[in-house]
Amino acid sequence: MNNNQRGTFAEYLFATKCIEMGYNVSFPLSDSSIYDCIIDTGKKVIRVQVKSTTRIPKANRGSVQAHLQNSKSDYSTKFVDFFAVYVNHYDGFFVFKNKGNMQTIRLSLNGKNKVFFNNFAFK
Fold first, then answer.
1. Which of 20, 50, 65, 74 has its CA 20 to 30 A from that of 102?
2. What is the count of structural domains for the chain?
3. Residues 6+ apart with CB under 8 A from 88
């Protein structure tokens, strides 16, 4: 898969997981939207930016560093409520609230961010 296909795969996989949880999912019609999808939990509506990585955890750290920013987008809390990062190595998503100034995050099943793994409760 190329990068575009991998990103599309992650977006649709995330949407499928949300539908399995009983949420409604909407996608913007334009690819110029800052968020990738909207999740309606029945209690709140959430704008989500979906990312993916194929990086393998470093042996000495056991974590994957995921890049959340790029030069074209401002993922401020005004536009994006949550990030969902698909980590191919773990075959799952780390779903966490956007703090507004995040550039990268270390993700693992053992570290402090393990609480975000497959966190479809959007807490």
1. 20
2. 1
3. 52, 53, 54
The reply to whether 66 falls in a domain is yes
Residue 23 CA to residue 37 CA, distance in Å, equals 12
**Which domain CATH number covers 35?**
3.40.1350.10
- Please write the tens of the pLDDT for every residue from 48-76: 999 998 887 766 567 888 888 766 667 88
Q: Are strands 104-107 and 64-67 parallel, antiparallel or unpaired?
A: antiparallel
What is the DSSP annotation of 11-24? HHHHHHHHHHTT-E
**Structural domain for 55, as ranges:** 3-116
* Burial class, 36, CB count within 10 angstroms (exposed 0-12 / middle 13-18 / buried 19+): buried
